[in-house]
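Session log. Operator J.P. requested a structure for one protein chain; no other inputs attached. Running the standard single-chain path with token output.
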Amino acid sequence: PLDLVGGSASTAEMPKLLLPMALTQSLVGEPFTGYLHLSNVSDAPVSNVILKVELQIGHSKFILFNNATSPVESVAPGDFFDAVVAYELRDAGTYILTCNVSYLPAGFPAGT
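Structure written below.
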């Protein structure tokens, strides 16, 4: 299956999620940029890959990436899908980044 942060021994050297773990020294007005690398580490292809990335501060949520209307058709074994997200940090406070991934395993019919 697709892997964001783990990996097998053969893929351990390849980063899966490159995001700062703490934004303690970020200043208001600075840009936040994240690189997401979704890799299929299984032996079977996956299809209908959807990635949704949201940034929340307080009660406000901002969608940074969402390909639900145009999912990645297929990711073969050993292949990957990359996305870059960016947002200007306009307000002081705690930011919460949420990444949701969905996909269909091989042989699973779409729309079920």
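Operator note: The two ends are 19 Å apart (CA to CA).
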